[in-house]
Each structure stands twice: as structure tokens, then as C-alpha cells.
Request: fold
Amino acid sequence: MKDRIRKATRHVNQNEGLIFEKSSAGKAAWKLPPLDVPEVDTSKLLGPSERQDLGNMPEVSEIEIIRHFTRLSTWNYAIDLGMYPLGSCTMKYNPRVNEAVARVEGIANGHPYQPEVISQGALQILKTLSECLIDITGMDAITMQPAAGAHGEMTGLLMVRAYHHSQGRARKKVLIPDSAHGTNPATAAMVDYSVENLKSDSRGMVDIGALEAQMNEDVAALMLTNPNTLGVFEQQIHKIADILHAKGGLLYMDGANMNALVGKVRPGDFGVDVMHLNLHKTFSTPHGGGGPGSGPVAIKKNLEPFLPTPVLITKSDGQLGFEYNRPLSVGRVRAFYGNFGMFVRALAYIQANGPDGLRQTTEDAVLNANYIRKGLEGTYELPYSTPTMHEVVFSDRLQAKKGVRTMDIAKRLIDYGFHPYTTAFPLIVPGALMIEPTESESIEEMDLFIDAMKSIAEEVQENPQTVLDAPHSTRVSRLDETAAARKPVLRWKPQA
Amino acid sequence: MLKTIGLRSVDELFAPIPAEYRLNRDLKVPRQMAESEIVDYFRQRSKENGEGYASFLGAGAYSHYRPVIIDSLISRGEFLTAYTPYQAEISQGTLQSIFEFQTMICELTGMEVANASMYDGSTAAAEAVMMAVRLTGRRSVVVARSLHPEYREVLATYATHQGMPLSVAGFGDDGRVNLAELQKLISSDTACVLIQSPNFFGTMEDVAAIAEIAHKNGAMLVVSVAEAVSLGIVEPPREADIIAMEAQSFGVPLGFGGPHCGVIATREKFVRQMPGRLVGQTVDKQGCRGFVLTLATREQHIRREKATSNICTNQALVALMVNIFMTVYGKVGLKELAKQNLAKAAYAAGQFARHGKILFSGAPRFNEFVINTQEDPQSINGRLLEHKIVGGLPLKKFYPELGNAALWCCTELATRSAIDAAVAVLAKDEGEGSEREATVEEVAR
Reply:
């Protein structure tokens, strides 16, 4: 069986305890310069507020810290190690020039409150990126403030709310397709909209009849992901927009899958009123083990008065600056101006690609996904035969007959040297395998992946237990998540 | 590849998109650039962005030294280019580091549990307040006016559609929450009191007294800590029920305001209402220690509209910077670092006091102080800029009642010579100003 696995092999893997277990008094990795001002009597300055003890904070040397985190790092999978086919997550290559330019002194160390006259560099970056994103989305204006996709959703829905309020009609609910990401309903709840589920039709698209039936003047917006989480482009998108607009509703687009559209089609051209982007998906800023992200929200002109404050403007003297006095604004959604470091990286990505490169990126992402679809069709069941864009969703129906589910196949994929695809999502496909290769993968890497998936399918027939027990080659085997949740241990404590 | 798929052209892949929506022109974005041009572009922007200035700005974003090993370690692709650690078997590096992060945040804050991060200090504070609303079943909130003004704005945005009435408790002559006013504002519908300590003016709040008032009325106390380095020398707000932190001070670049690193810490009994990811310890099939994301039933991907928050992506890589910083300084270094901050600010305040009035001097403070001057601080800052110095933050925009007050910050990076230079610029104008006045007088005579 081992000879089937071409991409990965075992190698020596260092053990490493918790940092606290290495700590002992007197070790240090820090050195402060000599104090050039008079020392102070801390107890006199702070009185009872003075802290006496820092508890169990570690004391370790620099080489120990380097080894500690280096060893930990080797326990992670990463894009830098290979394909990361997580559907709807767009795990593409994170160019290193992005990291280099984000660390240039004036960019890394600019203070958010430094005077505008010495902030023109940062403001120019903000302005240029904003203009690029506005053209890419086909919208009219943008806010860069939201820190991540879900934060962008909240910001977008707050603007939707403010818009309806200004129309003199507060609306009560938001329609969300059953294929949507969990953040959509969670966001709607945060801005006090009730959520109404919208069914998909047999092709995996919005059921137009159902939408017409459910649309009324209580509906503030439809939150739609396009292409949707099946990777299917909503062909009737304009019809959908018309149905909403006819009753005064707005079309919100979750831009999670924008990697299928950039340079080829613009949401602003097919009826979208408000949408967020994920710079950490489409625009190559690193996922970093879960963040930071950035979730700019692009809007049509009618929503512009409601943008969060401050708004970037060009002043009469040609200098860039912020405008704070915007009476209809939804307010601030975070301190300062957004995850600026991510803007720098996203702009560097756009510059490295240019118009042709961005278009080709999209074409390659869609081509790659269709190559994998073709390669695995027949081996895994395709629940919807509708053409797909940048990702493809299979189901585990054929394998489930042997008692093997999508999560088991995913875990076995680890032994083959790949990160699993997205499992059990979207919810409309029971036992979903959601695969998004992105444009970053070569045909060689994808062939390895297809071979691995086919090999696992054979294993399911011949020896399902191998798959059920996977992964076999990782430093820890399947972890007991139930025990972790039942009696949570959320921090280290010294042994009594 | 096209042949394998059975297509003749790439365009066929886009056939599902109705032709009338397809873009038939180039995007209006900059032309493709070589790596050398990209680097040059950002170097130019850097030069236009305060490169080489000495700065005395704090106010929620602090300039501390960042040990070089932070960037060497977080640049490892295995950290930088990994996804959220849902697949525990191949994410133990990220998971264990978050577990250590949670532990150290607990140690520093005196709380029992901490999450894996929030977007920033402002959204952490707003989410902590919403958590208190869920826990108490009450709706209204009392916010200190000495809380960062932008945090207050963010809370107002979050509160608008939650039907959460907000009231604001002012500050007294010592720059701290006016306890009598707080007492009056608090009611049986108050879910929580939200304060910041050290507060926006750099002053330590009387957390124990505020906690007593809150708890006596059945409300929770949420404390925002925006200057994390203070925890090295200042007693943490142990009386709080929830602490909402901004950990940027711990090794995170200012970055023109982000990405920074919010965190929420609280008591174990409140953990199920906590927003954000949590890492917990468990064992694998062989009984080996391992770590997983846990208590996910609080989160949006499981609970959808019933989740504690919509947060998904957080600030993981920034939390790793914070983690490494805390590990480098550790038990002794953090205290010494905090002491240097205290000494620098005390020295600077002493020097500035000769040319203006230090406000709120009746209460202990950390590394920030407020000075009120005869001259408009905007004009002082204009002259300082000529010397490549960025002066303190004029407070008029946020606190019109404070007139010519400005908020100055001195971290360990503020050198005595930079402080003296700033004081000299400030003093010089006084001299010139009085000379000018003298000239005017002579003419009048």
C-alpha cells in the first residue's frame, strides 16, 4: 500500500513539549538598553496598582524559542508544502514579495494617527487598491475597514439596513440559500435580521420560483454566493436581481468565490448592490493559520452615504485625507482604517499580475478545477452535473456503501501528502467533498492528487479499514474531539 | 488539459456565464510589474509615510521594539501559509502555539480562559459587551468616556441593531471614571460596565471600586486593555468578568492601524458564551497529548444564526507574533520592559510640565500622559514635524472640553535625546511667543 503514496514519505519528526515545560528561572532571551532617564520608584508611582508577580510566564533562551517554534512549524501542513484543495477557501500561493514590501519601514511602522501630511504613502496605497477593487467588482465605492469576510458581511448588511431605513421602510428578514456559508446567517442575526432559508433547485442553483414566492417587502436582501458553494455560476443572476429590486430588496454577494470571476465578469454588471471580498482568498494574502484576513465591502452608488467612517477623499489641494463628517454613515466597524498590512500585499499581487495576469489567474483556476472534475468523475459521485467554475463538489455516496465517509477519505488523503478538501459542506450535498485547486497548481501536482483520490477509492473497496483508521503517518492519530469539548482544558497549568 | 476535459478553448469554460455580463476589456488596474518595480513602488510610498520620524503617538497603537526572531519564525511557510487548523493531525504546530498563547494571556490577565484572538481591541470590546448581554439577559450598557473614543464608536455601531441602549459615564479631575455618575447611570437593566485601564489618557482606573458598583447592581464588568505592556508592571483587572484586549504592543507592527490582535479573556463559567475560536487539549487514539479546536458549537459554521458571533477568520498569525513576543520577554523581561516605559513617561512628563499643565496627575499612569498648553497642539506638532518629530495626539477632536490638551506616549523606544528635543521645540515657541509679545508691546508703547 505504501508504494501507492508518491508525494509524501516519513522523516524524523522532533518532539517538543509546551514552552512552560522548558522554563527555568534565570534563562532569558531579551536585553534592554541601559535606561537613559532616571530610574523611578514603581511602588511610589503605582501604589497598590503595582504588579508583583507574572505567574507562570516562561523563562527560556533564544535558541530554545527558535527550536520550539521551528519544531512546532514542522507539524503543520501548508501551501508551501503542496496542494491545499479546500473548497471555497482559495488556498493559493502567497507570493513572498508581498511579505517583503509589507515590511518596508515606513509601511510597517506608520502610526494610524500620524498627521495626514506624512501619511500620503499609506493613503496612496489605500486609494490605488480601492480603485483596482472597484473596477474588478464593477461597483461604485468601497470601504476597506472590515477585518475579515464575516466582518465585511456585517458591514454590508449594516449598510443595507441603513439604506432601507432611509427609504422609510425598515425590513425584517434576509433570504439565504441553503448552500450558504455559516457566516451568512450568523451575520444576519448580528444585525437583527431574521433568516429565511431559500431552497436550491435540482441544478444546484437558486430556485427562481421559490424566490418569487418568498420575496416580499419585508425582505431586506438576498445574500448570495456566486459562483455558489457548488462552484456553479448562477445563470439567472440578473433575473434574481430583478426579482429583488422589483420589491425594493437588495442583492448582497458573498465574494468568497471571486477567484472564479476576476477579469472575466463583474458582479456590478450583473445586478449586485453590495458585496464583500476576501483579500486572503482572492488576492493572495496569507491565511497565517486562520488570519489575519481583510474583507473590503464594495457597493453601488445608492449605498454610498452609509459607508463606515472615515472615508478616504482627495482634498482640494490634491492631498489625500480622511473625511469623518458623514451623518448617514453606519459608523465605525473597527478602530483605525482596516488591516492595512493586507492591503499592501493585495496591491503587490495585483501589480505582479496586471490585467492580463489577473484574467489568466481566473482562467487557470477554472481550468484546474475542471481538470480535477474530469479526473475524478466516475470514481466519486457528482451529485450535480451542472458545469462548474473554480471548484467542484463530489459526494461520498459510492464510498458510504462500504461505511467510509467524506471525513475518512479526507483523513486518508493526509497520508498521501495532501491537505484534505473541504468536508461535509455545502450542507445540500450529503457527504460532500468540496475541491478547489486554485490556479497555483501545476498539472503534475494535480495528477498526484487525482491518483491519490483514485487510490483511496480503491482502498475503500479492498480494505476500508485502512481508510477508516487514517491518518497513519502523522505524529498524532485521530484526536478525541468529544473529550476535548466535554471537559475543556483550555490552558496549561503547573502540576500541583 | 483542455483536451483531457474535452474542450477546445478556455472560453468554453466560461460558457455558463451569460455572454452579456462577460467583461470584454482589460481591467483598469496597474500594468504588470516586475518584482523589482513592485519593491521600488512600495519603497517610494514608504518615504512618503513618516519614515525616519521619532514619534510620541500612542492612543491605542504603540511603538515597541520587535525582537527579530518574531519575523524569522512567523515567516516560516508552515505557519504563514497554513489554513485554520480544522484538520488537527496536520495542524499541531498552530494548535499548540495557540494553546500556549491562551495560557499566557490567562497568566497576564488573571483570567481563567482566553480565546485564540479577535480582529482587534475595538471589536473585542464590542463582542465582550454582547457576551455580557447574553450572559445577564439584560440590555443596556454603561461605557466610560475614558474608553478609547474609536472603541466607543465601534460599540455604538454594533449596539445599534441589538437594541442595546448605551450611556456614557464621564471622567473626573483625575481622568478616571466619575464613580458618582456611574452609580447614577447603572440600573437593573445594565448588562455591563465597559471601561479601559490604563484608560485612553494612560491613567489607571480604580477597577476595584467600579467592579463593586457594577456587581452590586448585578451587572458585569468588562475591562479593555489597549496597552498590553502595562500588564508587566500594573496589576491586571482581576475584578473584571471579561477582559477585552488589544495585544498589538506585544510584537505587532503599527502597520498604519492593522492588522493588530484582539483577544477576549474571561472566567471558565462564561466560556460557552464566548465568541471566537478556542483550542483545547485532548489525546489521540494512542493516548498521546494533542490539541484541537474545541467548543465549536458556539461558532457560526455549526450554529449558523444561533452562534455567539459571526467571526470566522481571526488574527492567527498576529497572535503568533504576540505569542513569540511574550515568550521572548517572559516572566522577568516583561516587567523590566514595562518599568522602562514607566520611567520614560515619568521623565518626559516631568520635562513637559515646565511648559504646560499635566492633566489628571492625581492618579497613577503608565506610559502616556496628557498635557495642556497655551499653544494649539496642532501648531506645536507642525513645528515638531520640521524636526522630524511626531508630537502627541491633539485631543480636541475627541474631547472638545479638554481644549489644547494632547496625549503623549513614551515607550522604551523614546530616547532621552528625542524627548529633550521635543521639549526644546515646545519651549522655543514660548520664548519666541513672548518675544513677539514683547515686540508688540514696544510698538504699542
Observations:
- Residues 363-482 of chain A form a domain with the Aspartate Aminotransferase, domain 1 fold (CATH 3.90.1150.10).
